[in-house]
Amino acid sequence: MVRVSQGTLYDKVWENHKVTELPTGQDQLFVGLHLIHEVTSPQAFGMLRERELEVAYPELTHATVDHIVPTSDQSRPYGDDSAEEMMAELEENVRDAGIDFSDPTTGDQGIVHVIGPEQGLTQPGTTIVCGDSHTSTHGAFGALAFGIGTSQIRDVLATGTIAMEKQKVRKIEVTGELPDGVEAKDVILEIIRRLGTEGGVGYVYEYAGEAIENLDMEGRMSICNMSIEGGARAGYVNPDETTYEWLEGRDEIPEGEAFEERTEYWESIRSDEDAEYDDVVTIDGSELEPVVTWGTTPGQGVGVTEPIPEPESLPEEKRDTARRAQEHMRVEPGDTMEGYDIDVAFLGSCTNARLPDLRRAARIVEGREVHDDVRAMVVPGSQRVQRAAEEEGLKETFEEAGFDWRNAGCSMCLGMNEDQLEGDEACASSSNRNFVGRQGSKDGRTVLMNPRMVVAAAVNGEVTDVRDLKEVTSA
Amino acid sequence: MSDDIEIPEVNYVSGSGVPIRGNDIDTDQIIPARFMKVVTFDGLGQFSFFDLRFDEDDNQKDHPFNEERYQDANVMVVNANFGCGSSREHAPQALMRWGIDAIIGESFAEIFAGNCLALGIPTVTADSETIEALQDWVDENPDGDIEVDIEAETVTYGETSVDVTVDDAQRKALVDGVWDTTALMKSNEEAIRDTAERLPYVEDGKRV
Ligand code: SF4
Q1: Is A296:A329 a contact under the CB 8 Å cutoff?
Q2: pLDDT tens per residue across span B7-60
Q3: Which residue of A has its CA nearest to B42?
Q4: Cα A349 to ligand 1 centroid, rounded to whole Å
Q5: Residue of chain A minimizing CA distance to B37
Q6: What span, in angstroms and rounded, lies between the C-alpha atoms of B7 and A423?
Q7: Distance (Å, rounded) from C-alpha A463 to C-alpha A457?
């Protein structure tokens, strides 16, 4: 039987999955779910072949294709030779090893951090790794989930385990009720802005408090997703009724009595009331407003009505980066981001391309049109999201307004397929990274914001406070 | 077989330095995503810091990796939060293939440091004054030798010797030559199976 231990969810899940302590002082942890995609896994399979090793737990491994997949014409072979080569390599690797693959022909393909939860692969009290830093997303379910590098993928493929050092836990309590127009995305941008992009190094973040508990699972995923932007390799929310209800009935979730039993396990791994934390940070959620970034790191954010900071007003070590960022973004301290001209609007990515994101955004779009100077696209996070959205008529809503409706994939989040910024285009983006060059053009300018703010910017051709836009029809 | 793989001990790295200044240098800058459309890491070295080194028309920009005097450097000196962002191992792979054997900096993003360790590249840290002094010294002495002693946690250059920090697990892994963990972990096969069987959601290596 599973060991019952004390403390935080992190302590308990760690303890449950600990195989042994290694001579390095690190712990060897069992990996309950290994997700793989086409960009970071081929080299790991190569290393395995070099060492004549087999995949140890193929049935706890699941593959998808997301980064390079074209979001328009998906017929094979792909138009881009290198994309085709990566896809073919993945197909061969999973076939040889007997790994399930949600490829586009299955109707289940999508961004790895969208398909894991929606198929019920992602479960509370499990350990999840993937060669992708946004694996932290799965923490929304109370899983211990972190991104790993390719050599670690090799380890997990070969042994079903990973070597890790235990980290500290910081509880981030978001109290109160979020005001209208403020979403999960704003909460996490605010957290990163306050604690910094390296504030979480050495920590796992436990998100708690009324504002977090009241979020739907998709909102919790948006928050955990960007833990890594705050420097924390993992973030999680304790599982609760919202979690269990969301999971019940999904493909990989046990049914009936087995579900009840499993729920007991899930309950048992919640952080104890008297658990000790290495640090606690409290944020008043009722005081937040929509947050947008003005710079080139996700920590350079500002409330949409607040002035962009003077570099001189920042801590010394941040000034240089701020100056360079303001030059790149062509923003002036003292101005607000409201009114910043936008050329492209991207509604997509593993942060914000799930059904409720698209629904909320569609309600803003309804009865409006994309600004003449803006090219706007919606890229659903998975084929399932896409189908569900199409069944609800969201596709028409977006298309009538002038948005391009794409097939599922990472798309312009990182510009590894044909969806890229050109020249110095400015993009209102629901994704998670605004690094220079991230969206495919090194002069491109990315402004991160919540999905409703993205479509508001698409409609007005400039960064807009979505709270000023009325929903034209009631939902 | 895995047992044949020799894992060298990394006690000591020495060689000339190259300063890479700036905080929050993310892995998208170290290796832009478009160069990741490959199925092996071979040949990534030439694309290190590509967009910082070349303009649209492939003309060289000012960047230490372009400078003649740093071409033989193997110790990189960076500032804070180096390697943040995407978890791509392509980043340390590219740097390693360019010639980097050790990195000294104020701080490193965790996944990046872990990825470096998996390649046997130490990521040692020191406070900002120490780092800046070392960067300035490297500017003046591009051929000067920097000695990174992992076990003693010191960096020596010119007449100067400074204390640095190497994370405990990293130091042990490097010094004892157990930084490549595959074989080590595989040898615990039985304990792995036991752990798996204890979990309520795994049976016979499958999800239940
Ligand atoms: S959507 Fe963006 S952040 Fe998410 S997995 Fe894809 S590339 Fe990474």
Answers
A1: yes
A2: 889 999 999 999 999 999 999 999 998 899 999 999 999 999 999 999 888 899
A3: A43
A4: 6
A5: A82
A6: 46
A7: 5
Answer yes or no: is pLDDT of A187 > 60: yes
Name the pTM for this structure: 0.94
CB contact under 8 A, A23 and B38: no
For helices A81-97 and A42-50, the axis angle rounded to 10 degrees is 50
What Cα–Cα distance (Å) separates residue A406 from each residue in A166, A210, A344, A394, A419?
41, 36, 15, 12, 10
Determine if ligand 1 sits within 6 Å of the CB of residue A354: no
What class does CATH assign to B12-177?
Answer: alpha beta
What pLDDT does B6 receive?
76
Domain A295-467 belongs to what topology? Aconitase; domain 3 (3.30.499)
In the numeric block, which tokens belong to residue A309?
A: 């900071």
Q: How far is the CA of A409 from the centre of ligand 1 (A)?
A: 8
Evaluate: CB of A352 within 6 angstroms of ligand 1: no
Separation in Å, CA of A235 to nearest CA in chain B: 14
Answer whether residue A3 shows pLDDT above 60. no
Alpha helices in A313-382, H assignment, sequence order: 316-329, 355-365
Distances (CA, A) of B27 to A72, A75, A76, A321: 28, 31, 31, 16
Nearest CA to ligand 1 atom 2: A413
Q: Is A413 in the pocket of ligand 1 (CB under 6 A)?
A: yes
Reported as a single tens digit per residue, the pLDDT across B165-205 is: 999 999 999 999 989 889 999 999 999 999 999 999 999 99
Position B1 confidence tier, pLDDT thresholds 50, 70, 90:
very low
Residue A156 half-sphere exposure, CB side, CA atoms within 13 Å?
30
Domain coordinates in residue numbering, chain A: 9-167+241-263, 168-239+272-287, 295-467
Residue B123 gets which letter from DSSP?
A: E
Ligand 1 pocket member A349 (CB < 6 A)? yes
Instruction: For residue A408, report the distance from its CA to the centre of ligand 1, in Å.
Output: 12
Residue A88 neighbours by CB distance under 10 Å = 16
pLDDT at A403: 98
Q: What is the pLDDT of residue A26?
A: 93
Query: What is the topology classification, in CATH, of domain A9-167+241-263?
Result: Aconitase; domain 3 (3.30.499)
A148 lines ligand 1 (CB under 6 A): no
Contact B22 A320 (CB under 8 A): yes
Judge whether A9-167+241-263 and A295-467 match in fold.
yes
Chain A residue nearest residue B178, CA to CA:
A24
Please check the confidence at residue B142 and state whether its pLDDT lies above 50.
yes
B3-12 confidence digits (pLDDT tens): 456 788 999 9
Report how far ligand 1's centroid is from the alpha carbon of A150 (Å).
Answer: 16
- Domain A168-239+272-287 belongs to what topology? Aconitase; Domain 2 (3.40.1060)
Sorted by where each begins, the domain ranges of chain B are 12-177, 179-208
Q: Are B68 and B62 in contact (CB under 8 A)?
A: no
